[in-house]
Amino acid sequence: MLRDKNRRAAAFGKLLAKPNQPQKRSTTVGLRSLGLDSSRDTLLYVPKSYQADKPAALVVMLHGAGGDARGGLAPFLQQADTAGLILLAPTSRQQTWDLLYYSEYGADIALINQALMHTFSHYSVNLEQIAVGGFSDGASYALSIGITNGDLFSHIIAFSPGFMAPKQHQGNPQIFISHGTWDNVLPINLCSRRIVPQLQRANYDVVYQEFNGFHTVTTGIANDALKWFGN
Asked: Of 2.40.30.110, 1.10.10.10, 3.40.50.150, 3.40.50.1820, which CATH number belongs to 2-230?
């Protein structure tokens, strides 16, 4: 019955994992694999400053097309210890996320849900600072599942997104979007300059930054996103 419920939820892009008091308190810090898949696994980074009695901010980081969990971590990994961030980075089941690969939600939502359940059961997470973020296809996916699961995610961070396709609008997450004006992969006029007004018309609180650059996440943009998330 529970498996059927999870399958139905995944088809609608819905995450069932909820933050709770860790059942199996862990003091392990640093980078490790969760062992959820032998070839396309999920990585978890816990900052050196983590203390079980002080809930930490969490960011679920989603890679771009053709990438993996390590690529997903890249924008924030160097700053995680200073910012006190737990980073959770899954790898898509195919070369990109299910919504973009199959035009529907499914296996990747199930994986993210499983990874979140593991994280919540082992580490203390700040309920008011749970973000989903990503770059390129990962940014499109982050916007889509972040809006669908706005009752879980307080923030959404989208670096150079192409589109968004939420199944529903839940909650009211704050949103940060950046895009390079010279982007020749996902052109800014067709992407963020359309997405941002749509979000604003839907009354989302959006911080939008354009920068002179191509299809990338600059260090400055990553730092600005983290500063915004921490406020």
From this structure: 3.40.50.1820
